[in-house]
């Protein structure tokens, strides 16, 4: 490969990273100026649609009692809310906590499944039960999919469901705020990243109605747009959103639909979670190539810019490192300097961050750089999991504060 080709390879790889992390978010912020959120909404006196809350739980005894309390506190017109909960063969106290509450409340339907199958398959089955409840009456309900660890504010259903007065909207995501941040862990870096993602998805919804997937912890979707997730798929919320886009629905988020979730502060836990999610990302990348390439319409451009390039980020970093190494070996001082900075940063950033942590010092920019490297390594790990073949989508709950 000639030097010119190496320069092009390194330059395009750097441009791809700049585009997904800087240029595209800046462009969306600029395009969203002056844009108003959806105004075609239900009002208090409206005939609000039926809602079915769907939740999968596995060994959630640490949070399930609080979650059930929040579900019981949800405000919505009487007789229009049903809750479907599936326990994915939990072997702790999860079932013992849910069962008596469900026995007392007619609108709560509890299914303690005896076979471990993973969250997506539990969600599939619960959606089927929910459909059966409404289909005989010709009702197209709103499904609200939630995680056990996400605690909704009482008014969140009104905030989400109001947007379904607009027949074009198929999915609305809630705004999950993190709790329990700690200086000594990665929680502040994770919260900074997630906050940026919330803003970017909000801009996408404002500009195009093409928000690139909900965060998965609490979102609403029209039942007719809900698609069964394949048995071994790991990232169900993104898959469901892409299938909805194929059917012509729009997706937005509602910043006033507030939920709370304790954020993880252990980098090992977050690495494990993101590696699993990464494998699911590559499943979706190869399932929906027509939705991101070529990036000529708003949906394809958003998918390509926000997701595809970011998921391929580790490979761009490796190409930059390899290209600069070869050019440095050819004697160019600039490339020698760049290669030294890159390799030094990759090696020293985690080491320095660990040393400062042990000394009780916490520098957020350094922690953020360590987080960036770790999450790209998780993406790479997830890619190899994907290449080997995903045989199961069962999971372990993430440890949180």
Automatic annotation (TrEMBL):
GO terms, molecular function: glycosyltransferase activity
Compartments where found: Membrane
Domain Glycosyltransferase 2-like, chain residue ranges per copy: 53-192
Membrane-protein topology: Multi-pass membrane protein
Residue spans crossing the bilayer: 6-24, 311-331, 337-356, 368-387
SUPFAM superfamilies (alphabetical): Nucleotide-diphospho-sugar transferases
Main subcellular location: membrane
Gene Ontology CC terms: membrane
Entries under InterPro entries matching the protein: Glyco_trans_2-like, Glycosyltr_2/OpgH_subfam, Nucleotide-diphossugar_trans
Keywords: Glycosyltransferase, Membrane, Transferase, Transmembrane, Transmembrane helix
Any matching Pfam family: Glycos_transf_2
Protein name: Glycosyltransferase 2-like domain-containing protein
């Amino acid at each position: 490969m000639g030097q010119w080709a190496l320069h092009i390879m390194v330059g395009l790889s750097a441009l791809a990273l700049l585009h997904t992390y800087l240029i595209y978010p800046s462009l969306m912020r600029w395009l969203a100026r002056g844009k108003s959120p959806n105004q075609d909404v239900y009002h208090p006196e409206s005939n609000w649609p039926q809602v079915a809350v769907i939740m999968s739980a596995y060994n959630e005894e640490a949070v399930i009692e609080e979650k059930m309390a929040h579900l019981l506190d949800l405000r919505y017109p009487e007789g229009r809310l049903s809750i479907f909960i599936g326990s994915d063969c939990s072997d702790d106290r999860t079932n013992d906590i849910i069962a008596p509450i469900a026995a007392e409340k007619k609108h709560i339907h509890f299914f303690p499944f005896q076979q471990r199958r993973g969250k997506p398959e539990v969600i599939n089955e619960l959606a089927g039960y929910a459909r059966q409840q409404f289909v005989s009456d010709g009702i197209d309900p709103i499904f609200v999919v939630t995680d056990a660890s996400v605690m909704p504010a009482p008014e969140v259903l009104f905030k989400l469901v109001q947007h379904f007065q607009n027949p074009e909207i198929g999915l609305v995501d809630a705004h999950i705020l993190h709790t329990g941040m700690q200086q000594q862990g990665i929680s502040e870096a994770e919260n900074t990243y997630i906050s940026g993602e919330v803003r970017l998805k909000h801009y996408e919804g404002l500009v195009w109605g093409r928000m690139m997937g909900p965060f998965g912890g609490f979102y609403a979707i029209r039942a007719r747009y809900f698609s069964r997730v394949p048995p071994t798929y790991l990232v169900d919320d993104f898959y469901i959103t892409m299938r909805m886009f194929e059917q012509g629905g729009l997706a937005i988020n509602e910043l006033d639909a507030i939920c709370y979730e304790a954020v993880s502060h252990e980098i090992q836990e977050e690495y494990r979670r993101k590696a699993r999610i990464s494998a699911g990302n590559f499943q979706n990348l190869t399932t929906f190539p027509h939705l991101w390439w070529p990036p000529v319409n708003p949906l394809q451009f958003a998918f390509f810019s926000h997701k595809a390039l970011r998921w391929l980020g580790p490979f761009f970093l490796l190409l930059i490192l390899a290209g600069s190494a070869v050019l440095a070996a050819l004697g160019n001082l600039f490339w020698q300097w760049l290669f030294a900075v890159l390799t030094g940063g990759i090696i020293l950033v985690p080491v320095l961050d660990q040393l400062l942590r042990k000394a009780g010092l916490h520098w957020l920019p350094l922690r953020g750089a360590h987080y960036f490297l770790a999450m790209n390594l998780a993406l790479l790990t997830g890619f190899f999991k994907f290449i080997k073949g995903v045989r199961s989508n069962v999971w372990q709950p993430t440890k949180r504060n």
